[in-house]
Automatic annotation (TrEMBL):
GO molecular function: transaminase activity
InterPro entries the UniProt entry points to: Aminotransferase_I/II_large, HTH_trans_reg/aminotransferase, PyrdxlP-dep_Trfase, PyrdxlP-dep_Trfase_major, PyrdxlP-dep_Trfase_small, Tscrpt_reg_HTH_GntR, WH-like_DNA-bd_sf, WH_DNA-bd_sf
Keyword Hydrolase assigned: no
Superkingdom, taxonomy of origin: Bacteria
Record domain HTH gntR-type: where: 10-78
Keywords: Aminotransferase, DNA-binding, Pyridoxal phosphate, Transcription, Transcription regulation, Transferase
PANTHER family: HTH-TYPE TRANSCRIPTIONAL REGULATORY PROTEIN GABR (PTHR46577), TRANSCRIPTIONAL REGULATORY PROTEIN (PTHR46577:SF2)
CDD domains recorded: AAT_like (cd00609), WHTH_GntR (cd07377)
Lineage: Bacteria, Bacillati, Bacillota, Bacilli, Lactobacillales
UniProt protein name: PLP-dependent aminotransferase family protein
Homology family: In the C-terminal section; belongs to the class-I pyridoxal-phosphate-dependent aminotransferase family.
Pfam families: Aminotran_1_2 (PF00155), GntR (PF00392)
Amino acid sequence: MWELSENKSTPIYQQIMEQIITYIQDGTLQPGDRLPAERKLADYYQVNRSTVVHALDELVSLGWVLRRQGSGTVVNEGNWGRSTIPRVDWRSLFTQESHPKEPFLEKLQQLLNDPEAVDLYSGELPLNLIPDFRFPSYTWEELLLEERKQSPLGYRPLQQVICQRIKADQKIEVSSDQVLITSGAQQAMFLLLQVMLQSGDSVAIEDPSFLYSLPIFATAGIKLYGVEMDKEGMRIDKLEQLILTKKIKLIILNPTFQNPTGSTMSKKRRNELIELSRKYQLPIVEDEVFSEMNFDEIPPSLKELASHQVIHLGSLSKIFGSSIKIGWIVADRDLIQRLSEAKQMMDFSISVFPQVIAHTALTDPRFEQNQKDLVVELEQRAAAFIEAAQVVAEDWDFSAIDGGIYVYFTWRHQKLTRTDWEIFLREKLLIAPAFLFSNDTMAMRVNYTRLTEGTREQFFLKLQTISKELRRN
């Protein structure tokens, strides 16, 4: 138990600290447990006693352990000693490098406000497609009254509407105490990482996946392992290999109109995934932010197929834009309670105001019709886009668009490099290359919904020009 790695370059006293913190976090050491005496620890670790004293002094200053006269060193029984409560490893934050910036993204973001640029990178609907609704006037006193309808899980009227929509769309009976309102889907993901995982744990995701571009995993010390996809979705054989070799703790995926490929996992593959997760007792996190943008019938959600095995994430940001930053987690009561406690501990409270706006939008009498009109408009834009895309079919592979907001283009010729994608920036054509989502450099994500008839023609003219230059290169 009291042994250190011989290959680490970290100072010995820090290794001792890290090991004791890990034992406290994973429950090997419980609150109130007494550590071996300093001399004993020095013998176990085969180091000088002064090194052990240095490590224990640091742990005392950070609140992990206490020195008691006559009792030696014990694990703190206060908040910092409770292994069930998520905590930040401050020391690792001080020593780790900041999240590296992607040079391509920095250049792209400088062009986002250029009126000549064609923006097919942004992950939102254009403003003219966002469903409209009338927001009633509120006095400050009325808003304060609405504040009283808040619970630790969120604004109760909004929770109830979400439960109703889940029942109608996914045929699942969900109660309000199984729904936690968050400030968008990313906050939901962050809470899950804090409560369900520890630094160094491994997570399986799709490859390619937008999750690679989120810094929250690196900040939390979580290792991401991509699972190859085919036409039916995440390959189960490849996933099982990872589970066995990388000790996967969690599976996170976006099965419907996946970001960035726009593909949808088949029902057969969904059932296989659930069977595998049951075999290895691994929870699944299902990100379903695009499912309401479907042109035809889609397979049942993973949550519908296995209610207790799946944690469901939803959001309004794809329909109403990032201005309504409201998301939610649907899971079993025990997990929702733990997530709620973590949310309160980290002071991730959400003002009632955006929740009232979200509730107003979802209960607006015109919402259902507006939603249908949006889907019709998206289907028309998708059909027009695919028809126009035939002019580049010799150079790019792409599939039909069945819903969502993305289409994936794959280059059909020689291997592309990151430098080749700079041509798109030079032409002010803003797209998302595959290397933002994986190690691949041969494809790009395009948000087709942002194109009007005029800009669609402009896009394909520029893409033809770029394709000729790429072939020459």
